[in-house]
Structure formats: structure tokens, C-alpha cells
Amino acid sequence: MSTAFTARVDAALADRTLKIAIDRTTGTARSKRAAAVAAWPHFQQARALGRDIKAHVTANLAHYLAEFERNAIASGAQVHWARNAEEACEIVIGLCRQAGARSVTRAKSMLGEEIGLPHALAEAGIERVETDLAEHIVQLAGDTPSHIVWPALHKTREQVGELFRANHADPGALASVEAMVGSARRQLRAKFMAADVGISGANFLIADTGAICTVTNEGNAELTTTPPRVHIVTAGIEKLVPSLSHAMSLLRLLVRSATGAELTQYTTFHCGPKRAGDADGPQAFHIVLVDNGRSKMLTDGLAEMLSCLRCGACLNHCVVYRHIGGHAYGGTYPGPMGSVLTPVLDGLETSNDLPKACTLNGQCQEVCPVMIPLPTLLRGWRDRSWREGLEPATVRGAVWAWRLMVMRPGLYRLATRIAVPMMRLFARRGWIAAMPLAGGWTRHRDFPAPARQTFMDQIRQQRGQS
Amino acid sequence: MTDARSAIFAAIATPSRPPADIARAASALLARVPALRPDRVGDDVAAAFFARVTGPAIGASGAKVASLSDVPGAVGAYLAAHDLAARVAVQPHPALLDLPWRDIVAHRDIAVDEPVAIGIADYAVAETGSLVFRSGAHTPTLFAFLPLHHIVVVRADGVMAWLEDCAAAESRLPAPRNLNLVTGASGTTDIEGALVRGAHGPGYLHVILVQSPL
Amino acid sequence: MVAIVGQTKNIALSARGRKNVSVTSIDTPRVGLFVTCLVDAMRPRIGFAAIALLEAAGCVVDIPQRQTCCGQPALNSGDHDGTVAIAQQTIALLEGYDHVVIPSGSCAATICGHYPELFPVGSPWYERASALAGKTFELISYLADIRHWSPDRVALAAHATYHDSCSGLRELGIKAQPRRLLAGVAGLSITEMEGAETCCGFGGTFCVKYPSISNAIVDEKASHVTASGAGLLLGGDLGCLMNMAGKLHRSGSPVRAFHAAEVLAGMADGPAIGEEP
Fold this sequence. Notes:
The complex is a heterotrimer of chains A (466), B (214) and C (277). In chain A, 59% of the residues are buried. Chain A folds into 2 domains: 3-295, Rossmann fold, CATH 3.40.50.10420; 408-463, no CATH class. Helices cover 53% and strands 11% of the residues of chain A. In chain A, a hairpin with a 4-residue loop joins strand 5 (204-206) and strand 6 (211-216). In chain A, strands 1-10-7-4-2-3 form a 6-stranded parallel beta sheet, sandwiched between helices. Chain A has a 4-stranded mixed beta sheet with strand order 8-5-6-9. The two termini of chain A are 43 Å apart. Chain A has helices spanning 3-14, 16-38, 43-59, 61-74, 85-98, 110-114, 117-123, 133-141, 157-167, 177-194, 220-225, 244-258, 294-299, 313-316, 319-324, 335-346, 348-351, 363-367, 374-387, 393-406, 409-424, 439-442, 455-463, and strands at 78-82, 103-106, 127-130, 197-200, 204-206, 211-216, 230-236, 240-241, 266-270, 284-290, 427-428, 431-432, 447-448. With 466 residues, chain A is of the alpha/beta class. Chain B is of the alpha/beta class and 214 residues long. Chain B has one domain (40-210): NagB/RpiA/CoA transferase-like (Rossmann fold), CATH 3.40.50. Chain B has helices at 2-12, 19-31, 33-36, 45-53, 71-81, 94-97, 163-171; strands spanning 61-65, 87-90, 105-107, 116-120, 123-125, 130-134, 149-155, 159-160, 178-182, 187-188, 196-197, 204-210. In chain B, the strands form 3 sheets. Chain B has a 6-stranded parallel beta sheet with strand order 1-12-7-4-2-3, with helices on both faces. Chain B has a 4-stranded mixed beta sheet with strand order 8-5-6-9. In chain B, strand 5 and strand 6 (130-134) form a beta hairpin. The model of chain B has no long low-confidence stretch (mean pLDDT 95). In chain C, helix 5 (105-114) packs parallel to helix 8 (166-172) and helix 11 crosses helix 12 (238-250). Chain C is globular, with a radius of gyration of 18 Å. The chains are: A alpha/beta (466), B alpha/beta (214), C alpha/beta (277). Chains A and B meet through helix 2, helix 3, helix 4, strand 1 and helix 8 of A and helix 1, helix 2, helix 3, helix 7 and strand 9 of B. Strand 9 of chain A pairs antiparallel with strand 9 of chain B, so a sheet runs across the interface.
């Protein structure tokens, strides 16, 4: 276990406010999702369909990418390709410079976070205005998102109030969450209209029209993408769907799984730049298609992860996430889906705690709207970590010694016959409060003393078997 | 750039299948949809839409009027009920501009902080209670996002049952720059999961369902 | 002496659990009891409860003497080769029985779900692993679904809550069976706790590799157990029970923990987990 991970975990666990903040938002999300699922008798069949739609796209990815590109270009969009984060940022910054942009508005996109776009814009000296309320909070705090749907989930209302008081031009009294939302509305209104470039992500890329889909509840995506002269979309190459109809099936699953609503308030399909005669819209529409490890996932046994809709249900239901929060994971994406993706993006060497810091309880897979077998994928990383020698020598040694005995039943019997009475030496009234080599357990809980004799010894005596 | 494109396609290297086979597989997936949709529409799709959009989950307010000429009256009643000045931005759509607005001051331009705007949806979807706007000369996208109070007229005979009906309708038309599905007023749950309306878009959505054909 | 009736039944264990399993219906199956390494070393009473229950349900119970561990620690550590070796040993040990029964959802899920995945599809070991998987069962669901057994004249005046261990629940579909059988115990009432299906934070080696996270999880779990007002905590997996009981004891809670098999076998009048006889 790396000390960096442990330090982040310990800091998170020590933060009582964080747990309260996590519980408030994820608790609401879980109960609203449960109600939405309960109201849909065919939810399981719908999940299977969602899985199959995404699997179909993944199996024919080159076909759909080419079709999407063709149709996007026909709609007047300009399509760009980026192998990795650096190339993607370079393209976006280049487009901003070409547009003479001094200010860009951004609608929340996890891909933008993944490729480090906020940092790249800052380096290029371009003013970045985050328009999603949570991203706005995160930006004011100089922070990073801790959840893929609620990036500022780690902030309490009191903390948000302080940030707004210090940073907003006209914060008012900020006595309630309503007042805080109102203050952000006033603060960002003029910024929307003044931006030179608007940058968004995409929830879906519609292959047969070349349109991209954004979903928001605030309406910030359309206010980001409509007034500026240029709209730039950054999207992962896995976001494809064959048609608008296929997107509808996935939207039903995505929104219910994320927030428990039936559809986001604003679900928009953007197809090309402003048309002749259009009353508003950007003059230029750029789509940057980003690989950044995705094509490698196809061949690395992680193809199923390309189905991920980024709904956040696996985070909201993960016992580990609910205790340590998003920042402890140390990557762009936290929770179960993040523990699968971060080793792809950051390398297994620096992130191999993530697949292991999981109880494999399977709740993430149970709630995944497209049935991604997350525990299986996490096991895959554990296998790889073992194979590549990334496990500490102590762990390898312990498993090796244990395996040696398990594979020799006679020796195993002897070892348990010796170990059991030895353990009993540490017990008081049935419980062991501390014992060598058992600190991981006994630091936090008592260990029940074993019986005087193992089951196998007792049964042999009883049954007279040898 | 071309390098990146070819490198990505080379890395994907999915086996190439005849496009007709892929298309067949894609439509086979859609054939499964009708049997598994949440059954919440019924026979009277307009009534189902109205109930959904004004129900607790979406929370819009609504009024039903017999014909388009009743719209100014319904707007006036809304303005009075909310203590709003009799001044509205009217979406530059002939169906709205031609209405007798009388004592309501109707203007075509929408301000960044427009208190009230009235628009007309191209159609609606009963399943989700969504209003659908197709951007164009008569439909500026921003009309649905800048006002605080967003009043939307939609015809009862323009209500479709399912999201797939919306997709099918769109597949027969040239794609607009923006296809906006509006399902309630703007909202956010970004601070402690508490729902607050009017985050950036409208804080209030009022639907006027016109019963007779235009 | 083993009567084989020979007709094949399709038994749907649960909607979210295993696929339909074909099991040869046998009047008096010869059952190999795999007690698990934890029960062997820590709480043999569960093994004896299992024997009593299986015999009451008409089985001939055999205890394979060379049994050790199903290999879960290696499997969850990513030691693929080690897991394969242990799986082969275990398959060879158990494949001769009509049925194999295990008083643990997670060990049963290892054999039922993960053993076949260890081998190339169609290989001889894959076939052997799949055959074993098809006739291996977790104890409580075996009694309820395969043997159609229910408790008779078992009584326990107590108020309990039941924890659904994750592997049994999500990999084997064990949810209703323990509740159905426990409902047949006279005097026993069950109150569901908040988050009965939420992981207790045990996770095998997880609890010692990431003790602080595990502690945070089990701490919350223990508070839900306590809040249920039940005096007994029941479950079907000793690992989870030891984790929760250990936390409850450390925090001074009087809640006592038993494996459901002990209750069903009428053995809950004895010492609970962590109590001296």
C-alpha cells in the first residue's frame, strides 16, 4: 500500500465534515435512483439493452467513428483527432488562439478534467469560466472535482457560502442554498455572454447525424455553447451511438441512474455551427475526438469499460467511496469506475492501490446501468499487478507461505493445530484485543478467540477417521 | 492531425463487417425497445404529457386553452398571478407574433436578464414531459435559457408518446443546429444535493397546452 | 446405498443470482462438506451445525479429510497461478460427490463462479471446474432450494437482524432463503436493519490491507446493527460475522452474533462468536 494513498485516505477519514457532505448528496441520489428504478418494471431488460447497444458500438467502433466524422463534417463541424491528453489540449488551445479568445466558458466535462484542460487554459493565459455550479465552486476553491456528477460534493453549504462571499461581486446575504445559487447566477450571467469560445464535453456522439449530445439540469451547457463565436467539443471516442433512437434508450438509463429523474432538464443535440438564417449559435463548431488510452482498453481486456455512461451510480453505492470521498483516489475519476480507469490513464505503478482498496462486494455492478462487470475488471488489475511484480515483497511472501501450506493438507493440518492454541494465549474472555501480526484487525476491532481444537481434529476424533 | 487520426484507427482495428450487417444489428437492438419502456403514456398522450410536466417530478405549472388566440389571456393571467409586469419577450415565431397581445407589451429581443419570455415548442414528448425546440430563424436557442419565467405554448396534437417518436420525427427532417429537449425549469443539486430552481436557466416553467389544431 | 432417482430439475435460485442450475434430484445425496478454513480454525460449531442440518435434510455427509482453503486469498490478491493450483487440488478433492455444500456464500461463489473462469473455455479443467460448480451450494440455500428442508421444532426466543453477505447475495442470489428458514424457528423475530445489503467492510484480505477504510465501513455497519434494536446478529459468512462481532464487542455493544446454521440447528443456546463455552 502506497503511503501517498494511505495519507489521502487517512486525511479523508479524519474529516468529519466530508463524511456529512458525502452522505447528504449520495444518500439523496441513492434513494431517488431506487424510486426511479422501482417505477420501471423492465429496468433489468433495459440495462441489458443498454449494455448491448454499447457493446455493439465498441465492436464496430471504427465504423461508427468514421460515420460520425463524415456526418459531422457534412453538418459544417470541423473534426480533430487527439491520441492523448497533450494533443487534445494543444488542439483546443490552438483553436482558442485562432479565435483570438481571451475568455472561454466551460460546461462541465469529465473528459476536460481527464486531459487537464483547465490547467492548459491557465498556462495559455486564457480566462476560464466554469459554468456548472459545482465546477464554479471547485474553481473558486482552487480544488479538483470529487465526484463525476457532483464535482463539489465535498463542500458543505457553509464552505460554499464563504467562497462566494470572498469571490462574488454581489453575494448578498447568502443565508440559504437558494441565495447562493442566485449569487452564482448573477456572477456568471455576463460571463456567458462575453465569452469568445464555449467548451463542452459530450454525453453521446450520434453517428448517423454527426450531432453531439449534452445533458445538464442547470442549462449552463446551452448558455456556454450558444452565445460565443466558437463552440469546441472534447469527447472520448467511446461516446458513440448509432442513432438518436439508440441515444434515447441510453438517456433513460443514464439519467435515472445518475439523479433518479426521468430526463435531465436540458437535453440538447448540437449539430454543426449556426445555419444561414439561424437566430443564434456559434459561427464555428469544432469536435476534438480523444483516444487517451481508450483504444488500448479494447485490447487490454477493458473493452467493457468503454460502455461507461459516467452516471456516477457506482460511486454513490460504493462503501469505500462513501467513506473516503473522491479526492482520496488521486485520479480524475473516483469510485469503482475510477479504480478501473485510473490505472489506464495514470499507470498501474502509481495507482495499484485503487483496484485493491475494494471489498469486491459487487454493488457497483448491481447498479451499473449498462451492467459493466466492475469487480471482474478490478480483479483483472489485481492479476496484472501481481504478474508485473508490483505487489510488495511482504504480500508476495505471505501469500506464497500460505499457499505452500494450503497445497499440503498434512502440513496445513499441523500448522492450524499449532496456531489455534497459540492464538488462544492472547485471548481474554473469548476475545483477542491485540496479537502480533494482527494489528490491521485488532487496532479497530476485537478478534474472537478460536475454539480449542480445529473442526478437522474434532471430526477425526469423533468419526475415528484418520 | 492526420497522423493522430490514422494512428487511432490503426489502434482500434475492429474487424470490418459489411455496413449492412452493422445496420441490421443496430436496428435489431431497437426492436427490443417497445417491450421494455416504462409504461407511462396511455391513449391520451396530450393528457399524459400535461400530467407529467405539471406533476411533482418536473414541477412546471400549466394551463390548458382551447385555441391559440386564448394564449395572450393565459399569459396575462400568469403574469398577474406572479405579480409580473405586463411585458414579455416573444419568440420571433409567426404563430406568436401574430397574436393579439393587447395590454401586454410584446418585444422580440431577449435580454440577458429577461424576466419573462414566451416561446412555442415544435412538439412535446409525453413519456418524459419534455418540450422540444428545433433551433432556427423563428426559434433562437437562447429564448429557452435566458428568461427567469419561461412560458411555453405547445399544441395538443403536437404531443408524441415516446422519445423514440421524437427520434423518428427528427430522422425525417434535416437536423437543426440545436435540438433542445426541455424537461422542467433549470435546477441544480450541486450544493449538498438540495434542489434549487433557476440555476442558470429559467427558474419557472409554465406550459400552455393548446387543445385545438393551429 | 445412494439412491439416484435420475430425473433432472431446473432450479432457478434467484433472479439476480445464478443461472438455472441443473441438478440431478437425488433422494439421499452423498454430500461433501467443505467447512472452509475459517470455520475449521475459528468456529467448528458451524461445521457441526452444518452436518446436523444436512443429515436432517436427508443427506449422507462426508468430510473430505484433505480439504484446506478454496483459494480466495490468492484469487483476490491477483495470484492467478496460485489460485489455479489450489482450484485444481480442490476440484480433484470434491468432484466425486453428488453435491458439495459450503457454509459460506463467498467460498461457494469462488467455486461456483470463479473456478471455471480460471481455465480456458473447453479445456478439460474447465469442464471439471464447471461440473463442480454445477453441484456446489452454499449451505442455507441448499437446504431451502434443493432439499426443501425447513426447521421443525427448533425454537429460540430472540430478536435478530440478518446481514446479507455480498458474495452470497450478489453472486449466488441468497436473500430470501435464510429469512424463510429462520421464519420457521419458533420464538425468533427478525427486524431488518438499514443497509442489510451493504458490505460490512470485511472483504477478506481487504480488512487487513486497508484497515482504516475497513474500520470506517464496519463502524457504520455496527451502528446499523445496534439501531435495529436486535439482540442477535445473524449471517451466513463467518468472515463478515467475525468482523461485525469484533467491532460490536470493541464498542461495548451487547449484540451477540451467530451463523444462521447454528440457529437452524438449534445450537444458538451455546456461546456466540467470541464467547467462551
